[in-house]
Amino acid sequence: MSAFPKDFLWGAATAAYQVEGAHDVDGKGPSIWDTFSHLPGTTYQGTNGDVAVDHYHRFREDVALMAEMGMQSYRFSISWPRLLPQGRGTINEAGVKFYSDLIDALLEHNIEPMITLYHWDLPQALQDEGGWEARSTAEAFEEYASLCYQRYGDRVKLWSTFNETVCFIGFGYITGGHPPGVKNPARALQACHHVFVAHAKAVAAFRTSGIDGKIGFVNVLQTHTPLSQSAEDLAAYQLAEGIFTHWLYDPVLKGEYPAELLAQAQAVWGVPQFAPGDEQLLRDNICDFIGLNYYKRETIAANHHESHLTMNTSGEKGKGHQQGNEFGFKGLFKFVRNPNGVYTDWDWEIYPQGLTEGIMNIKARYGDIPMYITENGLGAKDPIIDGEVVDDDRIDYLRQHIGAIEDAINQGADVRGYYPWSFIDLLSWLNGFQKQYGFVYVDHNKGLARQRKKSFFWYQKLIGSNGAER
Ligand code: BG6
């Protein structure tokens, strides 16, 4: 017997740009990722999502595999420019139909859809008008969300507005590694504010739509630990908590920014600027649930130097943050390698207890909010032995993290579902196809043929026993 409740949802996740392909098919408009990934030097070896794993054309085969694995829920995102090529206005009915058919196929197999409205692929047309820095993008988002509610709300109960603000705003507007490639914290904060406004507007529209469902927000669950107990490392750690947790969760779970940090940001940069009514809008539209994406713990230390982000995108250990090459903000904090940590080949620390700790921290700060673990997984180059994909490391990783969720449930947390990243091997934004996460392998040398991995059968058993057999 496991601690998982009877109606716990065992699922898996993907995102549109990373699986669909068909980037210019059936009337889809370009997204910022279509544009960005075609610029020289932006992604690993020039990889892009033009074809990805062609889920757009193979979704029925993929849904059949989900059903065979026993999946009870599937988290996927909608490509906004597939529905609204200009971001607003004219509707592309072929795009609407694709997701409608996908939803029907899932329901025929008793798989509950969980929709993410925004997983980073903003219509390029809206970027051309200022993207998230323009308030009008928040209004366009409300229009797009309402279209999704109208067309899919009769069949879909679980919705989230945004995936991981810390990534698309942080990489998009601070480090510059994601589109639109800006490096300016003040612009980041204003863009981030418009995301919160867009979220609140979409939640308000959801509640008036009459849909019998729940709506939430998906964030990175960033568990931190200080490098040492020195006063300056502890202060750096507190600050990292404030920025990566309080700033990003409070507006959607409490309906307000953390007051002290807000005052500091406005004093230094004059942002975020609020339009009349924003405060009320945020207060009135807090989430029904929170989605947590957990991969790794971050170790935090005081920082006295300028530094820039060097990401490990090759899967060769030691190419990420390391001594003398640590990313951070001068005078605030930096991310460092934990001397006691166990790391993946991409230099991500494997720390399952961090998932328990993170869940319990969210509960402590925000009360009895329902939670879904909307992503969790191991990126690796999987070994193939005698034609079988033997991803034992992934099985170990997932097993330990499922144990960590069980611990949190035993400590009273209301966790309602688990969506490993990812259902199938897919495009990693900056790491190409070599960083595999899936239960299903895709052979790029054999016309994208699908193959079940060892973890597929392991997860199938686990689901069949509601988490007991692992
Ligand atoms: C999450 C994203 O940040 O991490 C996914 O929501 C992403 O879209 C996943 O693929 C893993 O990141 P990466 O860089 O290893 O592909």
Automatic annotation (TrEMBL):
<keyword id="KW-0378">Hydrolase</keyword>
<comment type="similarity">
    <text>Belongs to the glycosyl hydrolase 1 family.</text>
</comment>
<dbReference type="InterPro" id="IPR018120">
    <property type="entry name" value="Glyco_hydro_1_AS"/>
</dbReference>
<dbReference type="GO" id="GO:0016052">
    <property type="term" value="P:carbohydrate catabolic process"/>
</dbReference>
<keyword id="KW-0326">Glycosidase</keyword>
<dbReference type="InterPro" id="IPR017853">
    <property type="entry name" value="GH"/>
</dbReference>
<feature type="active site" description="Nucleophile">
    <location>
        <position position="375"/>
    </location>
</feature>
<dbReference type="GO" id="GO:0008422">
    <property type="term" value="F:beta-glucosidase activity"/>
</dbReference>
<protein>
    <recommendedName>
        <fullName>beta-glucosidase</fullName>
        <ecNumber>3.2.1.21</ecNumber>
    </recommendedName>
</protein>
<dbReference type="Pfam" id="PF00232">
    <property type="entry name" value="Glyco_hydro_1"/>
</dbReference>
<dbReference type="InterPro" id="IPR001360">
    <property type="entry name" value="Glyco_hydro_1"/>
</dbReference>
<dbReference type="GO" id="GO:0005829">
    <property type="term" value="C:cytosol"/>
</dbReference>
<dbReference type="InterPro" id="IPR033132">
    <property type="entry name" value="GH_1_N_CS"/>
</dbReference>
